[in-house]
Amino acid sequence: MDFSNGKNNSGNLYILAAAVLWGTTGTAQAFAPAGASSMTVGTVRLAVGGAALLLLALVRRQFSPENHWPLVTTLISAFFVASYQLCFFAAVAKTGVAVGTMVAIGSSPIAAGVLGFYCRGERLDRPWCIATACAVFGCVMLSAAGGEVNIDVYGILLALGAGFSYAMYTVSIKRLLDDKSPDAVMAVVFCLAAVLLLPSLFIYDSAWLLQPRGILVALHLGIVTAMMSYWLYARGLKIVRVGNVATLSLAEPLTATLLGVFVLSEQLSGRDIIGVAAIFAGILILSRSSSTAEPMEK
User: Fold this and answer.
1) 3 phi and psi, to 5 degrees?
2) pTM (2 decimals)?
3) Residue 36: C-alpha distances to residues 30, 92, 95, 215, 260 (Å)
4) pLDDT, tens digit, 9 for 90 and up, residues 103-131
5) Is 290 a residue whose pLDDT tops 50?
6) What is the four-CA torsion angle of 27, 262, 144, 243, rounded to 10 degrees?
7) Long-range contact list for 263-266, CB < 8 A, 24+ apart?
8) Closest listed residue to residue 241, CA positions, set 128, 137, 77
9) Which of 10, 166, 167, 275 has its CA 20 to 30 A from that of 242?
């Protein structure tokens, strides 16, 4: 990679590191006790991560009583963080892991790029277009390798909702980061999102949380894939364009695939190898580009 642009490349590395941590979510969930539904796993992840982020922000004294919090933007961010969990897991249940993941993760960088263009005036340049095309193609290859494809219109709409939710909370959180501390922003947004999803713990079976292995899984999901990852994500998002952030985040399925091979002993097919190579190529293109979060010239 070209590290000549220190600010941009540090932002890229923050996002890539966050995506790598996100990529451990599926592997961690595979070790969860029987009865751990995707919805309760997602809720616990937000609750533990939000509490950890709040504690970190308080210890570091990141909240300033003089600063006014934009209520609408904060609520929008929390709503879409929560809705991503709901839409994604519902989409996977309706249309299967392969199609649900492919549509949700594959649509998010496109939606984020368009929203970044219209909401923040960020340029959709050639490196972004090429990198996003490569990365989305790679996601299609990885997801399509998963076996029988089940097309459900409602499931597809839910998956698109998940991709849009990711793009929306990326744009809205970036707006908060213009004026607020990254630690404070992520703590407030995650805590509010966790509150929105807490009722699911009373609707679905959560007895798995009382088992030692369940506690370890919950701690990994909350501390590693939420607190640590979004601590990194916020710092990268502060200086990297919205569209680039979403494309770089596709390192998540890349990481999940590699962990499946090396930790869960899954087999890597020829289609998987093409998908891994395409995502890596897209990430490399963006990492070498000099694009930053500068607004487009009017």
Assistant:
1) -105, 25
2) 0.83
3) 10, 15, 20, 11, 19
4) 787 788 888 888 988 888 888 888 888 98
5) no
6) 70
7) 263/27, 264/27, 264/30
8) 128
9) 275
